[in-house]
Amino acid sequence: MRTRTNDRIHNLFERLFPEQRLFLRSDTSTRFIRLRPGTQALVVFGAAATVAWAIVASSVLLMDSIGAGNVREQAGRDRALYEDRLNELSEARDSAEAEALAAHERFNAALDQVSSMQSKLLASETRRHELETGIGVVQAALRRTMNERDDARSEQQDMLAQIEGDATGDMPNSSLPEVDATLAFLNDALERTAAERDDMAREAALAFEEAEAASYERDLILDRNDKIFTQLEEALTVSVEPLEAMFTKAGLPPEKLLSAVKKGYSGQGGPLMPISFSTKGMPPSADEARANTLLKGLDRMNLYRIAAEKAPFGMPLKDSFRFTSGFGPRWGRMHNGTDFAAGHGTPIYATADGVVTTAGWHSGFGRMVKIRHEFGLETWYGHMSRLRVKEGQRVSKGQRIGDMGNTGRSTGTHLHYEVHVNGKPVNPMNFIKAAKDVF
To answer: In three state form, how does the secondary structure of the chain look?
Structure first.
């Protein structure tokens, strides 16, 4: 059965591949090898399959090489664009920081001007009150003098009438000198009273003029104060809103954050205490209410400033660098931080005030530093070549804590940076991006 099948195969290929014989001759004998059609066909088909496989494999390798080159070029272009974007963000951050400092200086100058205007306003109010009191005294004296003048005139008329009545009868000659003396006295009293009345009238007119001038000056001061209050309110809004947005984007609720800051900074007193005046049971004036609102806003902004120093909104590097890996899954595992690549020995800085809890070798992180901050925050710095702090040491924001290296499980010189909130790792870029418009 098998021989019959082989014969059919040989007969099928015999037209294309006729039977060939290969003779091998030696000195003593001659031999030959018989190449049947099926054997020849098998050899030809095998060679063709080998050549085809080689062509397909070469094509696949060539296409893969071309594709890899395009991917590398695209990755290079993306990296260049990313670095340009980082440089633009850095310049924008520096510009925003300069603008914030300028706004803070303008705010302090405006606050000093408000204090000066308030002092002038209080002095003007005191002067106006004194003038009103003086005017009241002058008016009372003037009314009393006028009453005395009217009484003297009435008395004079009565005496004149009595003298005229007595003149018709028998009046002793001895009473005439006394009448003359009385008339002279009354005339002198009337003249003095008229003179005093004129003086009082002039003083009253001057007092009214001074009162009107004081009222006008007070209106000017009130108008200037209103403009200053408006500028301060706008400056406070511009200063506080970015801070609130920064903490919100970082995942730190502003109200809870401020409550935590107040617990550690609960002292009272100084220039930011609410303004309190004696109102005799009456509600405070509009200016007092606005001033107290501004002072509360300043206190809130100051608490935000303290919180910003205590939270890791800073950058761990100040020199040039590039991002090499972000937060999230990588190679089937979770990457809990952000990687920054730079030269060996690049300085690494603390991103917020805190206390060093770990400074040494830590498994795959190599030489690393952990810093505990307030509000349940913690930052990790891994793969360092040199440590410049010790456990238990208190560090400040921007203080150098080590040098970049390649220790531990690492493929190259870089910094592995993590941020933990209440023991849970979060994306460090949330803090870095949130602060880019503020610092």
So the answer is: CHHHHHHHHHHHHCCCCCCEEEEEECCCCEEEEEECHHHHHHHHHHHHHHHHHHHHHHHHHHHHHHHHHHHHHHHHHHHHHHHHHHHHHHHHHHHHHHHHHHHHHHHHHHHHHHHHHHHHHHHHHHHHHHHHHHHHHHHHHHHHHHHHHHHHHHHHHHHHHHHHHHHHCCCCHHHHHHHHHHHHHHHHHHHHHHHHHHHHHHHHHHHHHHHHHHHHHHHHHHHHHHHHHHHHHHHHHHHHHHHHHHHHHCCCCHHHHHHHHHHHCCCCCCCCCCCCCCCCCCCCCHHHHHHHHHHHHHHHHHHHHHHHHHCCCCCCCCCCCEEEECCEEECCEEECCEEEECCCCCEEECCCCEEEEEEEECHHHCEEEEEECCCCEEEEEEEEEEECCCCCCEECCCCEEEEEECCCCCCCCEEEEEEEECCEEECHHHHHHHHCCCC
Q: Is the pTM for the entire model greater than 0.90?
A: no
Write the CB contacts of 183 (distance below 8 Å, at least 6 apart in sequence): 156, 159
Torsion of CA 16, 18, 24, 29, to 10 degrees: 170
What are the tens digits of pLDDT across the range 375-432? 889 999 999 999 999 999 999 999 999 999 999 999 899 999 999 998 999 999 888 8
pLDDT tens per residue across span 182-225: 666 666 766 777 777 777 777 777 777 777 777 777 777 777 77
Write out pLDDT tens, residues 303-361: 877 877 788 988 999 999 999 999 988 877 899 999 999 999 999 999 999 999 999 99
pLDDT band at 265 (very low <50, low <70, confident <90, very high): low
Q: Band of the pLDDT at 69, cuts 50, 70, 90?
A: low
